[in-house]
Design a protein that fits this description.
Layout (H helix, E strand, L loop, with lengths): L19 H7 L16 E3 L5 E2 L1 H19 L6 E5 L6 H10 L3 E5 L5 H11 L3 E4 L4 H10 L8 E3 L6 E3 L2 E5 H8 L18 E7 L7 E6 H14 L19 E4 L6 H13 L3 E4 L5 H10 L4 E4 L1 H5 L15 E4 L6 H10 L4 E8 L4 E5 L8 E5 L4 E5 L11 E2 L4 E5 L12 E6 L6 E2 L3 H7 L6 E9 L5 E6 L4 E3 L2 E3 L1 H9 L4 E11 L3 E10 L1 H6 L3 H16 L12 E3 L13 H24 L1
Parallel strand pairs: 1-12, 3-4, 3-5, 5-6, 6-8, 11-12, 11-13, 13-14, 14-15, 28-29
Antiparallel strand pairs: 1-2, 7-8, 9-10, 10-22, 15-16, 16-19, 17-18, 20-21, 21-23, 23-24, 25-26, 27-28
């Protein structure tokens, strides 16, 4: 069986001679780039209403770059970490650092100090940009490892220097102000291979183990934006009105966190490339999001399954008729929930997509109502051949985007045919470079000839729809975020009550999965646990042990179960399939107990 190819093949050259800010901010005439309304805003702060057009963004990025260069001497290969919730200046800091040739590593603002410290050390970060709300954690993380002095920490929000008990900190605005007094003091990277430079060190747990830094080049993100632009036929002639994916004046909700690869690539860079206004929301709140959709006349939504599940009948209180498109990613969405979601927005076209950090986001994506015929589209430098079918099937992850090839590999190593499950391998120009400073993990996932092993079990239908049916890898998906069982197991084992531990996920309609811990107690503690009240106290103590040291989505919301042993193979590797079977039995018994209590 040959490899699976997209239904539309595009012999299009993806540029390697520009960086991300050169592509987004400086290139206005790309043949795939829709035109904007004159004077339209690019970024809008949902809280303050402050808006930025392209000229102000370019100036702000330039002044930031000059000030950062003057104060810290940042240059090619230096790493800066962004540890903050969404902020209207977040993308401008990224682009300023990229102008200098620096690498950006985005961190979850909910991280504990130890989790942030791990990322700072792993990336050898030189600077740390954070928010006022996260400043205390940022200080603790930086000082505990003696990574860099407090003077290397910059705060996003305040207009003037941030004054705290720990001292005074530079702010993004104060750097912009300083930049106005500076002449050009750096040389921007240019050349035929400048796009090969690393743009981001984004963290993912990969197929197994602790989080690893994924090296993403400038050309990877640029290619993915252009691939999706081709997939959505952004500048195809003959399309009118709602047949077009993006229209002049459209606006998109920027509620996905920008530190997450989905929010970073699709909800930020692709949306701006499409000519839309991005309304930047610092934090997700369901009611606030509905109000913002109405206030800003939002037309496009990029969201995750937990947000879909929350869309209940209260939405009928709002006029959301202008919402034309929604994409759901980061975790699978059931067919039933999809149908319910569509029913609330009869005008809206929606579907799912599939990707991962290792693929710089999108591999497959729903089609935006293509016409049922074949047609050719020509421009001055390329020819596109499209073979269109029906809109992607509910429950599928859409169809392969242009220049992406998939392979389904069965357990015996043979290549699967249509409708046969196996591990999904993918190849394309958007594939990341490697796991930074981790040769072993790189060799396991980034294979010769450009293939990336996803660790997900999938199948492909003859119609071209990709269905992700299960995760072969150990990683859990909680609220769309990756959770490595090994990380939680390692943390549980150092607790004095615990002799051994294993963690798997249990299904949850809202979160997708919840971590459930199987714990082997130390002998003396095990005796105490024979008393039901003592057992519950120990469970709560272990859950608190995780909650006090890990970000919210890593908490043991699935509970803690005591076992005599964690199943392992002769080499000591946890047999997760057996643990999952035990987890299913735990869920079944809980359900039966719940029914019994209801009867009483």
């Amino acid at each position: 069986m040959p490899d699976f190819h997209p239904h539309h093949t595009v012999p299009y050259p993806f540029p390697r001679d520009i960086t991300i800010p050169q592509f987004i901010l400086d290139s206005d005439t790309h043949p795939l780039r829709p035109s904007r309304l004159p004077g339209s805003k690019w970024l809008v702060d949902d809280v303050s209403g402050r808006a930025f057009g392209i000229e102000e963004i370019r100036e702000r990025v330039e002044r930031l770059a000059r000030a950062i260069k003057e104060r810290w001497g940042v240059g090619k290969g230096d790493v800066a970490c962004l540890y903050s919730a969404n902020d209207v200046d977040y993308p401008m800091v990224i682009w300023a650092l990229h102008r200098l040739g620096a690498i950006v590593s985005c961190a979850n603002p909910s991280y504990t100090h130890s989790e942030l410290e791990y990322q700072l050390e792993a990336t050898s970060s030189k600077l740390l940009f954070t928010s006022s709300a996260s400043l205390s954690t940022a200080l603790k993380a930086a000082s505990s490892a003696n990574l860099f002095p407090p003077s290397n920490i910059i705060v996003f929000s305040p207009v003037s220097p941030a004054r705290t008990p720990a001292g005074e900190f530079a702010t993004v605005q104060s750097l912009v102000d300083r930049g106005w007094d500076l002449v050009q003091n750096y040389t921007e990277l240019r050349g035929p291979d400048v796009g090969d430079n690393i743009a981001f060190l984004s963290f993912s747990s990969g197929t197994t183990g602790l989080p690893k830094a994924i090296a993403i080049a400038h050309r990877n993100l640029i290619a993915n934006v252009l691939q999706v632009a081709m997939h959505e036929r952004l500048t195809e002639r003959g399309l009118r009105g709602d047949d077009r994916f993006a229209l002049p004046g459209d606006a998109c909700m920027g509620v996905l966190p920008m530190y997450h690869i989905y929010g970073l690539v699709m909800n930020l860079h692709f949306v701006l490339f499409c000519g839309m206004t991005l309304v930047v929301c610092p934090k997700f709140n369901f009611k606030n999001m509905l109000e913002s959709i109405v206030r800003h006349h939002i037309t496009h939504l990029y969201i995750v399954p937990p947000q879909v599940v929350m869309l209940n009948p209260i939405t009928k209180q709002y006029d959301l008729s202008h919402v034309r498109f929604a994409m759901v990613g980061a975790a699978p969405l059931s067919k039933e929930v999809t149908e319910k979601f569509k029913g609330m927005f009869p005008r809206m076209r929606m579907g799912q997509g599939y990707g991962m950090t290792e693929t710089c986001t999108i591999v497959s994506k729903v089609r935006c109502r293509p016409p049922p015929y074949t047609e050719s589209v020509q421009s001055r430098s390329f020819q596109l051949q499209f073979l269109f079918q029906q809109e992607s099937v509910n429950g599928s992850a859409g169809v392969l985007i242009p220049d992406t090839i998939a392979r389904i590999v069965k357990e015996d190593g043979s290549i699967a045919n249509y409708n046969e499950p196996g591990e999904l391998w993918v190849r394309g120009p958007q594939m990341a470079l490697c796991y930074a400073n981790n040769k072993k993990a790189t060799e396991e996932t980034f294979l010769p000839e450009g293939w990336v092993r996803t660790g997900d079990e999938a199948l492909m239908t003859k119609e071209g729809n990709l269905f992700v049916v299960d995760r072969l890898k150990e990683i859990l998906k909680v609220n769309g975020f990756q959770v490595a069982p090994a990380e939680l197991e390692g943390h549980l084992i150092v607790h004095p009550y615990v002799q051994d531990a294993g963690v798997v996920g249990i299904a949850d309609e809202y979160k997708g999965e919840m971590p459930l811990g199987f714990v082997v107690l130390e002998h003396s503690v095990s005796k105490r646990a024979q008393d039901p009240k003592e057992a519950e106290t120990i469970r709560q103590e272990l859950r608190k042990w995780v909650a006090d040291n890990k970000v919210r989505y890593k908490h043991l919301d699935g509970g803690v179960e005591f076992v005599q042993a964690v199943p392992k193979n002769p080499s000591g590797k946890i047999l997760r399939r057996l643990l999952r079977d035990q987890a299913e039995e735990v869920v079944r018994k809980r359900g039966e107990a719940g029914k019994t209590r209801a009867k009483l």
